[in-house]
Amino acid sequence: AASEVTTVPPETIRRLAREFGEAARIGSTIAIEGQELPYRPAAATYFGGAYGHDNAWLTSLAVDLLNQVVGASDVPGGLLGCDPLSYGHPQTGMPHWAPQADDDGLLLPNEPQGVVGGKPGESDQLHNWRGLGGWPITTCLTPLTAAVRDRSSSDYQPEVLINCGSNLLMGLPNPEVSFEAFKDCFVISFNLFSDETAEALADIVLPDACYLERLDPLPNWPGHDLPAGMGDWGYQIRQPAVEPLGERRHFCEVLLEVGQRVGFSDGMNGRANLLYG
Fold first, then answer.
1. What spatial distance separates the first Cα and last Cα of the chain, rounded to whole Å?
2. Spatial CB neighbours of 174, under 8 Å, sequence gap ≥ 6
3. What is the mean pLDDT of residues 154-182?
4. Over the stretch 15-49, which tens digit does the pLDDT of each residue have?
5. What SUPFAM superfamilies has UniProt attached to this entry (predicted)?
6. Hey, is 79 helix, strand or coil?
7. Is there a cis peptide before residue 95, judged by omega within 30 degrees of 0?
8. CA distances from 244 to 90, 157, 164, 188, 211 (A)
9. pLDDT tier at 149, thresholds 50, 70, 90
10. What are phi and psi of 6, to 5 degrees?
11. Residue 164: beta bridge partners?
12. Facing residues of 81 across strands?
């Protein structure tokens, strides 16, 4: 059945399953700092190739289950997920995050981000688009979530969208849904070149700097894309190799300057302290 659905020959499926199971060394252990832990030197992971198509949710779950079957989740040699808990640097206690209970009392993983000071708005769900929490900052804005607001009883409506480093309309399936979700917003888009988001949505398009032209103190997400291991943990720094062409500017520099001009310096510095610890 699997071969018919995937068009992968049965012998290939059996070979890959056997090799994956053997590589996982089920039952083996390893001693780390005096603690005996499961050792599973095999893992299955995925990115946009799995969740950028039809049936993406089920496809992603199926890949995740491969690690569960051989016991390779969050163990040495296996697949390490984003850390659900951080006590921060010994000197500062930051950045700090930990699981918490959701409205139903279920365990809710947290992220290495959060708001600084203030109180979120009274609206519970619409103000909490993945970390928005009543604040106009989010790193992962799902257009489908945004579109739901039109079917709610809340009068909350986003008015401004600042798009940085992405082609929002084409980044997910169903670009028409993304367009409908944000067509009434005043849109500012930073990019290296004109794209669908700039042409169809943006009111203002500003030239961004590419990665070779930028100084970035945090080029990767704190809980992701960073090497795991027993060594000291730290942030990478990306240094520019060439000067920006024309009038290009790092979008972060532009946003910081705007924030300073309108009096957001304390809030921006507070968030930076939260992130960098």
1. 51
2. none
3. 80
4. 999 999 999 999 999 999 899 999 999 999 988 77
5. Formate dehydrogenase/DMSO reductase, domains 1-3
6. strand
7. yes
8. 38, 36, 17, 20, 10
9. low
10. -95, -15
11. 190
12. none
Q: Which tokens sit at 51?
A: 């969740």
pTM: 0.66
Which residues does residue 206 pair with via DSSP β-bridges, in sequence order? 190
Domain residue spans in the chain? 2-70, 82-112+209-277, 136-207
Better pLDDT: 276 or 140:
276
Q: Alpha-carbon dihedral of residues 81, 87, 89, 94, nearest 10 degrees?
A: 100
205 closest CA partner among 219, 218, 191, 215 = 191
Summarised one tens digit per residue, pLDDT across range 43-79 is: 999 887 787 777 888 989 999 999 999 999 989 999 8
CA atoms within 13 A on the CB side of 214: 20
Q: Is 87 helix (H, G, I), strand (E, B) or coil?
A: coil
Residue 13: its H or E element: helix 10-24
Question: To the nearest whole number, what is the mean pLDDT of the chain?
Answer: 80
In angstroms, the CA 272 to CA 253 distance is 14
- For residue 169, count CB atoms less than 10 angstroms from its CB and return exposed for 0-12, middle for 13-18, buried for 19 or more: buried
Please report which confidence band the pLDDT of residue 122 belongs to, taking 50, 70 and 90 as the band edges.
very low
d(CA 169, CA 219): 23
CB 274 within 8 A of CB 267: no
Nearest to 181, CA basis, from 135, 252, 129, 114: 129
